[in-house]
Specification:
Layout: E1 2-4, H1 5-11, H2 18-27, E2 31-37, E3 43-55, E4 63-68, E5 75-79, E6 89-99, E7 108-109, E8 113-115, E9 118-120, E10 122-124, H3 152-155, E11 161-166, H4 177-188, E12 210-212, E13 218-227, H5 237-245, H6 253-265, E14 270-273, E15 281-285, E16 291-293, E17 299-301, E18 307-310, E19 315-318, E20 322-323, E21 335-343, H7 345-348, H8 351-354, H9 360-365, H10 374-389, E22 392-393, E23 397-400, E24 409-412, H11 413-420, H12 426-435, E25 440-442, E26 446-449, H13 461-472, H14 498-507, E27 511-512, E28 518-519, H15 521-527, E29 546-547, H16 552-563, E30 570-577, E31 580-581, E32 595-596, E33 599-606, H17 623-634, E34 640-643, E35 649-659, E36 662-670, H18 672-677, E37 685-690, H19 691-695, E38 711-720, H20 725-734, E39 741-750, E40 770-779, H21 788-806, E41 809-810
Parallel strand pairs: 12-15, 27-30
Antiparallel strand pairs: 1-11, 2-11, 3-4, 3-6, 4-5, 6-7, 6-10, 8-9, 13-21, 13-22, 13-23, 14-21, 15-18, 16-17, 18-19, 19-20, 24-26, 25-26, 28-29, 30-33, 31-32, 33-37, 34-35, 35-36, 36-37, 38-40, 38-41, 39-40
Helix pairs in contact: 1-4, 5-6, 6-10, 12-13, 20-21
Length: 812
């Protein structure tokens, strides 16, 4: 919220400088985000009156003016402004004056010169040349009573300070100049000047019938008719200036009056063209399909969750947000209806965002507006309308349906001292709360406060403690170092940090990416098979409407982004959280009921396995390259891979990753359907693993180096085509070898070659549907070098186990 300091001091004028005043407000919880002068620096610019204006002899668009600046002699000044005429008072820059800096950042110096052969002894200025506004259509016309020769900065109060406050949502009572003055009075003890608002004597008996059908939408509705107004009247300069210094441009007198009172007292209002209202007004919830063209030109469609003001034919206004175009005042308006209401904050909150705009009125109503002042606000608006636009007013129609209940809140002095962190007495608490103008009852060690109508935020004891703390002064609170013991959290040796895991992935050539946790809904269905994802109530974009349960979609988007920019090779990974529905999860300080949020690590590889080299032809990365990376990440633990299906992966080129029999993730090639949908030239290889499983690692145990040479035996067994490498290795490992087997490695697979007609004949001792798998077995003993008599039984035990499990036989 922005406003001029001079306006604030009209209500409360403490003996403080501008800097001290800003510091006081900030330390009182009303942060002053910016403090700047109303105009940039300039000098030697005074009030001048044009006494004569004649056509320039050598230029059609220039005039030669005789200007009186109170120095006795008239100044001869050449001016090209279209409104340069006799009798007006304007800013006059004397010779030697410095105007505000231009686009080059340098001040503009006024010198004695000639324009088309005529001497000019100064310059007449527009508002844009003084950097007061963007209006450069003519000279800035000053008030007729401005003293000649007076400094324009003094006449226009250009040394006034503009304060911009950054208010938190609970400080709705500070969204007006009077509201800030009330707080400043409480903080400084300076007297608060509350202007009396005398009622306007009605001269008409006219009233407009108004029905309020939704008391949960509108708790109070006040209004009155004013007839015979002149909307073509000019808004007074003082009001235009104050609105401009609040960041509000002047529109029309009636609109300006409504905006002015809103900035003054914080109560929004609306003025209807009475003659455009059909019958009476009805305050109700909207109906599905109803449309309204707003004052900003937008046409919106309302429903049952949006409050409206309607007449007998159509909707005329969005309740508490913006009026409609159909009943807007114009230059032809003669009769008006002034409305001020109390709209329940819950009925206004979020409605503006539904229509993608916000208003000052909605900003105030959704935080809470004082319901006790609607009649006074209408009296203030009415008086300003009559003073500026003329007219006669009717009686005020005030309907009170349901207002917020002021529930007493109890403050315990002992608890206040404990929360604030310094000793406070009951007298201090009472003094602080009384300075805020709150009704108080004292008890034994307690203070009972009944919130004032404008204090919507005082609901619990902690709210009162906050008020006591800020009235005492945050800068007066003691600075006390924490006394709690600090214990370093030492990570066990069997666990790696997440940073170490990310560092290890980066060492494998992957680059880390960070993506949003909310993704497109179809990703969850396509890539995770998740038909019921966690949906966002208020997504930042329509394509980011659900929380992800897999990181794969995010990495595919990164790949697409890079390929669109001609990246030849992509290696990316992300360590992030996913969101899964889980009814077993309860709400704690780090969890939300029904939602599991595990950490995952996902990686993607696309392109050549290695960068281009001179010594060989590059090969495209494949499934085995990425499974090798997964094994390197999990080392020294040894993972196993089992064939599995995954919605995002190729059904024949994907596997689940297991460690110690526990599934910790998946790895595989992207499904051809999604490769085609994302328009990839070839499929990337992706993996997604449980980050907590990656962080686990076994503690190294010292082990002596074998003293005796190992003995190796090669066997080739014939098995069915369906026997997998994993099954074969598991069977070999389970054979009874007396603990002599140290290692087994598959080094060859042989299959019969198909004939030209596609059939497979029995060759090399193999029948159709069979294959030969050659395995190198390594045996080693602890006490001595093994002999054939010790190794041969172990080999026979392995062959017998393979025969029993798979019907295997040694290849002849």
């Amino acid at each position: 919220m922005q406003f001029p300091e001079s306006w604030l001091r009209e209500f409360c004028n403490p003996p403080l400088s501008s800097a001290q005043l800003a510091e006081t407000l900030t330390m009182g919880g009303f942060e002053v985000e910016e403090s700047r002068p109303a105009a940039p620096p300039f000098s030697h610019i005074v009030v001048g009156e044009i006494k004569e204006a004649v056509q320039h002899p050598n230029a059609d668009r220039l005039r030669v003016c005789q200007v009186d600046v109170g120095q006795g002699a008239l100044l001869n000044i050449v001016c090209g402004a279209p409104n340069a005429r006799v009798g007006i008072k304007v800013p006059c820059a004397l010779v030697g004056a410095e105007l505000p800096p231009g686009d080059d950042g340098k001040p503009f110096l006024i010198k004695l010169g000639k324009l088309r052969g005529v001497e000019s002894q100064g310059m007449l200025c527009s508002a844009s040349e003084l950097k007061l506004s963007e209006d450069h259509g003519g000279l800035l016309e000053l008030s007729a009573d401005a003293p000649l020769g007076a400094d324009v900065r003094d006449v226009l109060q250009l040394d006034d300070t503009l304060l911009t406050l950054k208010l938190t949502p609970n400080l709705a009572h500070g969204l007006s100049v009077y509201g800030i003055a009330r707080e400043l009075s409480a903080l400084t003890g300076a007297p608060l000047k509350t202007p009396t608002i005398p009622p306007v004597v009605p001269k008409l008996a006219d009233t407009l019938p108004v029905k309020v059908l939704a008391p949960e939408l509108c708790g109070r509705f006040s209004g009155r008719i004013v007839r015979g107004v002149t909307t073509t009247a000019k808004t007074p300069a003082w009001m235009v200036d104050r609105l401009a210094r609040c960041g509000q441009r002047s529109v029309t007198p009636l609109v300006d009056i409504s905006n002015y009172v809103m900035f003054e007292y914080g109560q929004p209002s609306h003025i209807f063209d009475l003659d455009k209202i059909h019958g009476g007004l009805t305050v109700r919830w909207g109906q599905a399909g109803e449309q309204l063209k707003l004052l900003n030109g937008n046409t919106v469609t309302v429903d049952e969750k949006v409050g409206v003001i309607a007449d007998e034919q159509a909707v005329e206004s969005l309740a508490g947000i913006m009026g409609g175009d159909a009943t807007a005042v114009s230059d032809d308006t003669k009769n008006i209806y002034v409305e001020a209401a109390f709209w329940w904050p819950e009925a206004i909150q979020g409605r503006s965002r539904r229509f993608n705009f916000s208003t000052d009125a909605g900003h105030r109503y959704e935080r809470g507006v004082d319901p006790s002042r609607t009649v006074q606000i209408i009296e203030r608006i009415t008086q300003l309308v009559i003073d500026i636009c003329g007219g006669e007013a009717g009686p005020i129609d005030d309907q009170t349906l349901r207002l917020p209940e002021a529930r007493p809140v109890t403050l315990r002095v002992a608890r206040a001292a404990r929360v604030i962190g310094m000793p406070v007495t009951q007298a201090q608490c009472v003094d602080a709360l009384r300075r805020l103008g709150l009704p108080i009852e004292e008890g034994e060690g307690t203070v009972i406060v009944t919130p004032a109508p404008h204090r919507f935020d005082l609901l619990i004891e902690e709210d009162l403690i906050e008020e006591v703390a800020r009235l005492i002064g945050y800068n007066n609170l003691p600075t006390t170092a924490p006394l709690a013991p600090i214990t370093a959290r030492v990570r066990p040796e069997a666990q790696r940090s997440r940073f170490a895991v990310r560092h290890r992935v980066a060492a494998l050539g992957y680059q880390e990416t960070i993506n949003f946790s909310f993704v497109e809904a179809h990703w969850e269905q396509d890539l995770a098979g998740n038909a019921n994802p966690v949906k966002l109530l208020n997504p930042i974009a329509s394509q980011m409407s659900v929380m992800r349960s897999s990181l794969i979609g995010s990495l595919l988007q990164v790949l697409k982004f890079n390929l669109d920019r001609k990246a030849p090779r992509v290696r990316v990974f992300e360590a992030g959280r996913v969101f899964l529905r889980d009814d077993t999860v309860e709400t704690t300080d780090s969890t939300v009921k029904g939602i599991s949020q595990p950490m995952r690590l996902a990686g993607l590889a696309w392109g050549d396995a290695e960068a281009a080299r001179w010594d060989g032809k590059p090969q495209r990365v494949d499934f085995y390259d990425v499974t090798g990376d997964v094994e390197a990440l999990l080392a020294p633990r040894v993972p196993s891979f089992e064939v599995a299906e995954h919605p995002a992966l190729h059904p024949g080129r994907s596997a689940r990753v297991l460690v110690d029999g526990r599934v910790i993730g998946v790895v595989g090639e992207l499904h051809p359907r999604w490769r085609q949908k994302w328009d990839f030239a070839h499929a990337p290889i992706v993996f997604e693993l449980d980050l907590e499983a990656l962080a686990e690692r076994p503690v190294p145990v010292a082990k002596s180096v074998p003293k005796f040479q190992a003995v190796e035996r090669d066997i080739a067994v014939v098995v069915a085509e369906s026997v997998t490498h994993g099954a074969l290795m598991q069977a070999i490992g389970s054979a009874s070898t007396g603990g002599l087997l140290r290692d087994a490695v598959l080094f060859d697979i042989y299959r019969p070659q198909p004939a030209r007609d596609g059939t497979v004949a029995a060759t090399g001792g193999l029948a159709a549907g069979e294959k030969s798998m050659a395995v190198r077995l390594s045996f080693q003993g602890d006490g001595a070098t093994l002999t054939d008599e010790q190794v041969d039984p172990a080999v026979r035990a392995i062959v017998d186990r393979l025969a029993a499990d798979f019907g295997a036989r040694l290849r002849g």
